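User: Run a structure prediction on this.
Assistant: Running it now.
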Amino acid sequence: MLDTLCTDIAAACWGELATALADARVPLAVGDVTCLRRLAKLDPDLVATIVRWIRTARPTSQEK
């Protein structure tokens, strides 16, 4: 079975999500990586919206 996270778009989305969560200091729980993999495979515009929500809800110290 092909892991579509290996596509450039999904990998970029994974990076955006992971960075936004790390910057917002959101701790990951068991099972979250699986959910992040699924989120990263969604439409890039939807992923960008989710990233914006995370950053808006808890901006980094540089964005304050």
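The two ends are 43 Å apart (CA to CA).
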